Amino acid sequence: MTTAPFLPKSESLSALGLSADRLFFAMNYQFTPPKPTGLKKRLKQNDKAIDIDIACVLYTDNCVISDIVWFKQLRDKAESVRHQGDSLNGKDRGEQALYDGPLDQEQIRIYMDHIPAEIRYVAMIVHSYNQQPLAKIEIGEVHLNDDEDNRAFTINLKQVPRDCHCLWAASLRREVDDWYLTLQNLPLMAEDIEKAAQQVAHELARALPVEQPAAN
Questions:
Q1: Is 159 helix (H, G, I), strand (E, B) or coil?
Q2: pLDDT tens digits for 132-161?
């Protein structure tokens, strides 16, 4: 896993001016056809258009994975996080590239008031299904906004590290007074979303406060 400072600045949703009722973690990118290389026969993934997926992972207080919402599981058990469906290549939702249109190719809706009480963290992950670098797309982004279209962040996928095929984009953390958003922007060396979820769990656990032994 690429090392990076784990605790960038966090902001409460209210401080960011976001409605705490419903958030949208979404991705939009332009169809990017495969670009054959001299290694085409050895690296069969070069034959395929870039397929990017997004996921939300729910963790308990002690950083145990409770649910993964992604193209293989479109809702968590409480139906508080809902994936709106997989786009295989950024073009399969219609002939017009959706990057130029009003809709996102993939979107996950997070119903904040319905997230179970035992959930402390929600991680947002971006992954290239065929492990092609995210930056190989022509143009694209992931973003988070509320239902009034107030945007919390935008990550330009062309600007992630050149070899990054999996990105921990951001996380939400429940506190007593509010949910707090942290823009992580951390590359992960994960073959799939399930392994990425485990790596994030490890990083979250590393940041937990260590109890000091009681003084004698």
A1: helix
A2: 999 999 899 999 999 998 999 999 999 999
Q: Which residue has 């600007």 as its token pair?
A: 159
- As a whole number of angstroms, the distance between CA 31 and CA 97 comes to 7
Pair 152, 24: CB distance under 8 Å? no
Query: Could you tell me the two tokens for 198?
Result: 């485990």
Give me the residues paired with residue 83 across strands: 108
* Residue owning tokens 């979250």: 204
Residue 203 one-letter amino acid? E
Distance CA 210, CA 60 (A): 17
pTM of the model: 0.84
In angstroms, the CA 66 to CA 75 distance is: 12
Query: If phi over 0 gives left and psi between -120 and 50 gives alpha, with beta otherwise, what is residue 149?
Result: left
As given in the structure block, the two tokens for residue 97 are 């590239």
12 beta partners: 180
